[in-house]
Write a structure and sequence with these properties.
Elements lengths: L8 H10 L21 H9 L18 H9 L8 E5 L6 H6 L4 E5 H8 L8 E12 L5 E11 H4 L4 E2 L5 H7 L8 H15 L5 H8 L11 H5 L11 H21 L13
Antiparallel strand pairs: 1-2, 2-5, 3-4
């Protein structure tokens, strides 16, 4: 078996930036994820996203003021994993949702609240899956029914899963049909979307060239420079990636500025 060892500086850098498994999650032939959860993980995620109603749904329609309170109720057996419950939108750490709706409450199952709490903060809220039916007329006059599975997310279905002040939570929840649990294919779609939105392969040198020029006067103004970065494919990185890096720079710089306290003898020369 042949073993190839990168020797030159360029080869080492290429191996670090392009050949790592973490940089090759999506397949080049179709853009679908190569590395996917399987077996027990898929079974667990399927079980986590099941929805139930009626007598099988303990605590359906209950309101909880925070995710911690919801988890405590679940651990004490007061609500089941598959019951649809209500939380304030402010309690689920999804700030974008507050910009999309004026309604203060959101409902989903206990399991889906758990699932979404593990996804990136800026990522859309995943409500589940339903079958969308399309009707068309055949030449012979018969009606053709085409079914398509669609994942409900906050990007396209937020109003369906939000509630306003004074509404009867249980009644409104029971009006909606149950969503289907997420399958292996659905999980792969979510992974692909997260990868596209939050992962970009750029060189260390390009990032370093920006970081080297960051100081206390301009550390909040690096977005334009970051949006000009080119990934390994020769394309500009998505704006969402640039915003994430920019926010990371701001957060880390402020941490350093807050914790760094120069000695009296260094105050004149400290560049903070």
């Amino acid at each position: 078996m042949a073993i190839h060892v990168p020797i030159s500086e360029k080869a080492v850098r290429e191996a670090q930036e392009l050949m790592l498994a973490s940089k090759n999650i999506l397949g080049p032939k179709d853009g679908e994820p190569i590395i996917n959860p399987s077996q027990d993980i898929i079974l667990g995620l399927y079980y986590l996203t099941i929805e139930k109603t009626g007598e099988k749904a303990l605590g359906e329609g209950n309101y909880y003021s925070s995710l911690d309170e919801l988890l405590l109720a679940y651990e004490r057996g007061k609500v089941s994993l598959h019951s649809r419950v209500v939380l304030p939108i402010k309690a689920i750490n999804k700030p974008k949702l507050l910009e999309q709706t004026n309604k203060p409450y959101i409902f989903s199952t206990v399991g889906k609240f758990l699932l979404n709490s593990m996804l990136p903060t800026e990522f859309e809220f995943v409500f589940g899956k339903y079958v969308e039916k399309h009707y068309s007329q055949k030449p012979n006059g018969e009606t053709k029914v085409t079914e398509k599975e669609v994942i409900h997310t906050s990007r396209n279905d937020l109003d369906r899963y939000t509630l306003g002040y004074g509404e009867n939570f249980r009644e409104e929840i029971q009006k909606l049909d149950l969503n289907l649990a997420l399958s292996k294919k659905d999980i792969a779609r979510i992974i692909r979307k997260i990868y596209e939105d939050y992962v970009a392969v750029i060189t260390i040198e390009d990032i370093a060239s920006i970081l080297n020029n960051v100081n206390k006067f301009n550390y909040k103004e690096q977005l334009e420079n970051l949006e000009a970065l080119i990934d390994y494919k020769g394309d500009k990185i998505p704006s969402s990636h640039a915003k994430l890096i920019n926010q990371f720079i701001i957060d880390e710089f402020e941490k350093i500025s807050f914790t760094y306290k120069p000695l009296e003898s260094q105050k004149d020369s400290a560049d903070w």
